[in-house]
Design a protein that fits this description.
Blueprint lengths: L1 H28 L1 E8 L6 H20 L7 E8 L4 H13 L4 E3 L3 H14 L3 E2 L17 E2 L5 H16 L6 E7 L2 H4 L2 H11 L2 E7 L7 H11 L3 E5 L4 H11 L7 E3 L6 H6 L10 E4 L8 H12 L11 H24 L7 H8 L3 E3 L8 E2 L12 E6 L2 E4 L8 H10 L2
Parallel strand pairs: 1-2, 1-3, 3-4, 4-5, 6-7, 6-8, 8-9, 9-10
Antiparallel strand pairs: 10-13, 11-12, 13-14
């Protein structure tokens, strides 16, 4: 009898242990893996230095509130140094680890990974860069630009110039760009608008890493003498361009920069705010500190007895990182809710992205409308100008020439 009691006790203990193990395993399974790539050490690290901490901080903020519908976010970031082979390796690793969505960093990297995303049914995001035609969700089902593409940015720049100059017939516009796929992307739409609006256009390519452009800027400022310059540089390029244009006497008030030439670090790198006075910049996310989500992140750090990272002061890039992460959270939340609280698949998160409607993150972005056919979300931007040592908002959210952009998407191969 005593032996039987011992056996029963042992069985009960085993069952209890098994249940505890099962409970522990279930708890461990209550997480979703989101993959990410960044450039913290390569030629565009000046952007990554702000964007990447913004991404991590937003995921940490969501986890501090219990995660997404009870699922903790496991975020796996890999630094690919803005190189394609390491980006492909990072993708394969994150896919193997079970990522249900991936933040893809860089236009060359997006072009290399687009087909893999589709084959593996894992949604990837490329806000404000990548393949402009991916606004078409039918042709690019697993790629989400979820912010103004380079085509929408190019169109917005031309509209801004027109608003400044009036009739563009006979006016001269210079397009100064980083000579890689990202830099060349807006050219077809700008050329379409050249025919429509009747302006003269000359392009000035700057070889990577865009740290030397004295000859191009001299040609612009002293020979071509355009009525306006559209600047599409990134990495170290924007700071160099500001300094060179200033040195050659070209007024920065006649320059409008696309989104990757628009960070506080670009101004600091050019020599400071007085040097860049008058410079116009474009953004697809809010600029500055006056947004509830930023205050929540500051409060999270304060509760931990820590100071926020220095990156938070580069508000342009940091805020884009917050937006980028928030879109993945929103898509994942939509997917979990739509599937009865179950852990989502990549295919389900893809559907979750296409259910993002009227998403503005407390005013940080215009109300985004992402659908199965429109993965861009509207293509809205704002223009800011350097005035008195800060970025001052010059326009409300707007989009430009949507019919021209739509036609470019339609005829894209």
């Amino acid at each position: 009898m005593q032996s039987l009691s011992r056996i029963m006790a042992a069985v009960a203990a085993g069952v209890t242990a098994a249940l505890c193990f099962a409970g522990s395993a279930a708890a461990q399974q209550k997480e979703v893996l989101i993959g990410g790539m960044c450039d913290r050490t390569g030629p565009t690290q000046v952007n990554g230095a702000g964007i990447c901490p913004g991404i991590q901080d937003y995921f940490d903020l969501v986890n501090s509130k219990g995660g997404i519908e009870g699922y903790k976010i496991k975020y796996e970031e890999i630094d690919h140094e803005y190189k394609v082979p390491p980006a492909v390796e990072a993708y394969q690793r994150e896919k193997g680890d079970g990522a249900t969505s991936i933040l893809v960093y860089g236009s060359p990297q997006v072009q290399a990974l687009n087909k893999k995303l589709e084959e593996d049914k894992i949604p990837g995001t490329s806000p404000g860069f990548g393949i402009a035609a991916s606004a078409d969700g039918k042709r690019f089902p697993y790629l989400f630009p979820v912010a103004a593409t380079y085509w929408s940015q190019g169109a917005a720049a031309v509209k801004f110039v027109k608003d400044k100059l009036g009739d563009l017939h006979g006016k001269k516009i210079a397009y100064l760009f980083y000579d890689n796929p990202a830099g060349r992307e807006p050219i077809p739409v700008i050329e379409d608008l050249q025919k429509l609006e009747g302006f003269e256009l000359r392009t000035f390519a700057v070889p990577p890493p865009a740290v030397e452009m004295g000859a191009q800027v001299l040609d612009i400022a002293q020979r071509y003498k355009p009525d306006f310059v559209i600047d599409h540089l990134f990495g170290a390029g924007p700071s160099v361009a500001i300094k060179e244009l200033k040195r050659n006497g070209y007024p920065l008030s006649k320059v409008v920069a696309l989104v990757w030439a628009s960070g506080e670090h670009d101004i600091v790198g050019a020599g400071g705010w007085p040097v860049a006075e008058g410079y116009h910049t474009m953004s697809f996310a809010g600029v500055g500190d006056d947004y509830p989500v930023r205050q929540e992140i500051r409060a999270m750090y304060k509760a931990q007895g820590k100071e926020p990272p220095k990156a938070i002061d580069d508000t342009v890039m940091y805020n884009r990182g917050v937006l980028w992460a928030a879109l993945h959270v929103e898509a994942t939340r939509n997917a979990i809710k739509a599937n009865g609280g179950q852990k989502p698949t990549g295919e389900q998160v893809k559907a979750g992205f296409e259910q993002i409607h009227d998403f503005s993150l407390g005013g940080l972005v215009p109300p985004l409308q992402v659908t199965g056919t429109d993965h861009e979300g509207g293509g809205y931007v704002q223009i800011f100008q350097v005035k008195g040592g800060k970025f001052v908002k010059e326009t409300e959210w707007f989009r430009a020439y949507p019919e021209v952009v739509a036609e470019a998407i339609k005829k894209a191969e």
